[in-house]
What we know:
By secondary structure, this protein is of the alpha/beta class. 31% of the residues lie in helices and 24% in strands.
Amino acid sequence: MKNLEGKCxxxxxxxxxAAYKMANVASALHKAGAKVHVIMTENAAKFITPxxxxxxxxxxxxxxxxxxxxxxxxxxxxxxKEADVILIAPATANxxxxxxxxxxxxxxxxxxxxAKCPKLVSPxxxxxxxxxxxxxxxxxxxxxxGFTIIDSASGYLACGDTGSGKLPEPEVLCQxxxxxxxxxxxxxxGKKVVxxxxxxxxxxxxxxxxTNHSSGKMGYAIAREAMxxxxxxxxxxxxxxxxxVPFVNMRKITSxxxxxxxxxxxxxxxxxxxxAAAVAxxxxxxxxxxxxKKGLADAQNPISGTEETGLSxxxxxxxxxxxxxxxxxxxxxxxxxxxxxTENLLANSSKKLAKKKLNMIVANSLRTAGAGFGVDTNxxxxxxxxxxxxxxxxxKEEVAGKILDRIGEKL
Length: 411
């Protein structure tokens, strides 16, 4: 998790069976460097002990508004002021109702009422209780008052029913906290960022395709970083083995033509376009209807050759996506391209910067150790019309941050 060092996260745990999951949330936040305060309702302590959270966080778990250990500190006020974000999870129907109507009759609801920081609520209860119009009205009230409601997961519930009302897994709750707290100033709030990532696959026949070695890791890292900075992010991704980026609109494509159509549809209201994908420059001129057998050509495809001499596959140029963007972009669009080279890195990349009318290009070389496809690090040079900045070996997450820092400066 990013940028949690020194931040204060307050976990409000209420009396639901899913309270046990919050031990993993508290532990993960503490390991990420956050200061974690836990407040438990009286009923929550019947499902999991306060000692568990005290051991995991190194802080006293709060259960009583009038705890004499805090007699010289108006604790519900000081804790409310200290918190950078509050997560109430699991949030029972009872506590949701109290918060929606300003009832403050225990330590948790008192702190929530006093706090001005962002508040996240993760409802967890029986499906019928969750779907009850009263509960839904209370959740709507919380949204009206600025609370963020985390949708419940669906599945088999402790009561034996199957439906919505499950508490999301700890890693999901941690993602919500990280998103809220990583960049409190939200430098990209209100910006739509479109990122392309991964390879394309250009079909030769129903079995085979032409592609490249791109893993998509760089583009996914950029999409995640832009999301954490508050942007509305769309990730247009070719086929990869990567997990989807949370809180990002995913558009999965296969071919260069698919990617062009996706970009064309997204471009009009996009503020920042970052083309990190490795898009094929060429595709088979004709796609065979059936699997092409070894060394055999027929009237249905233009493949020529024999099993002994090998096959000759005619190729056609794919759509020049950046070229099209250069001619169809709106005045406020910032375009960042990528350039993968094996020689003359600066010269070739600078030429592409000018030809494609880019605002910035990120250049790297396959010849550089730690850069290129499939690895978790990169060595890049950021090139604009003002000059070039070579960055040292970094993780792709760190590179993503540097790229967005530079774009932010230019904007």
